[in-house]
Amino acid sequence: MPIYNKLVRDRIPEIIAKSDKRLTSRILSNDEYLIEINKKMHEELAEYEEAVLNENSEDAIEELADLLELIHAAASVYDTTIEELERIREDKADKRGGFDERIYLIEVLDD
Fold this sequence. Notes:
111 residues
């Protein structure tokens, strides 16, 4: 039996059980949960980067959705909402701009 030791989506145990397999799992503490969300974000980001490298836009979009799901999960750990994150994002965009113009800074000369 494979050992995974990783955070999985909520319905994965149900899906495994329906395939007539047994599993062991446990509920993470808040501290453990945040650590595992972070690990999962890195995993999903690597999968997104791989999809981009392979020029597979369908997979890239799928991985972005996974990252967004993890952002939702992390927000709940910090007792905030996606709406609050969006407000903060908008405030930062108002003050510093977004990334729409694709500006790539080369250097700043210090006189």
